[in-house]
Amino acid sequence: METQNIKITVIIAVFNGEQHIENTIKSVLSQKIEIDLIIIDGESQDKTIEIINKYENKLYKFISEKDEGIYDAFNKGWDLAKSDSFILYLGVGDQLIKLPSEDKLINADIVYGKVILNENTVFNSKIGFRLRLGNTLHHQALLVKKSLHPISPFDKQFNLYADFDFNQRLYKQNLKFVYDDSFLSYALPGGVSANFDKNQSLKIVQKNYGKNYYYLAKLFYQIQRIKSLFSK
């Protein structure tokens, strides 16, 4: 696809990820368009940096220094990205499978797609009321215009769900979200948000939507928990 007017930046955050970093890098470089690839490493002590250095001439930026966690790393990458680019952010082990078509990007502020969670589960991101209660967008298949938020967007007080907080703030702005069924990524199982932290999620809901939505989300989480118990 021709992307003369579309710039895409992919940010990879990694710390001691020697087992998975190469697959993540290769998944980005295998795309058929030019991508600014930024890697933010938290000063890894294994072979991660050695592996990254193999791709030195294909990277837009590479930083290795101590950070305050994955969202601090994403913030650093965001600040380095070109101001007119769409940004996608990946954790180590995640993989970009297919980008959206150009026509979707031209007419959107944010483009979202699907994420493979495991061999039996594909997460279909959604936009709507449900996003006010919990995260319905997975960052592995989410492209956001940097111009919507020129400075680093992730609130580091939310060490597990800063992307959820950012998604809610974007949604509140009445921006143009566009879904592309062909936009597909893979999320490595596990990670910092693998086990649901109800309290942090509720704190984000209250911050962005107030007390009424806090109580509504709390009820929603209880109902979901009961449903999961009966489904076992």
Automatic annotation (TrEMBL):
It comes from the Bacteria. Residues 9-90 form the Glycosyltransferase 2-like domain. It holds the Pfam family Glycos_transf_2. This is Glycosyltransferase involved in cell wall bisynthesis. InterPro entries: Glyco_trans_2-like (IPR001173), Nucleotide-diphossugar_trans (IPR029044).
